[in-house]
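Notes from the 1:1 (GR / supervisor)

We went over the backlog. Supervisor wanted to see one worked example end to end before approving the batch request, so GR pasted a single chain during the call. The sequence is below; no edits were made to it. Supervisor asked that the structure be written out right there so they could see what the output format looks like.
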Amino acid sequence: MRKILVCPVCRSKDIELDTGGYTGKYYCKTCGYTGSYILEVTEGYYKEMEEGEKMQRELDDKK
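Structure output shown during the call:
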């Protein structure tokens, strides 16, 4: 399965390399996060993450 980069703040896949080299900083086009810490997950795991967050929001709405 293919791996994708995911923002650790907003979980967006809209990520680009901001600064290359040793530091390797990334930029999230959705929330503006800039940093070297980034999630690299498979497409399947990303779908599971989205479904889990959706279920959590639904539970929070019922409270």
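Supervisor's comment: The chain has one helix and five strands.
Batch request approved.
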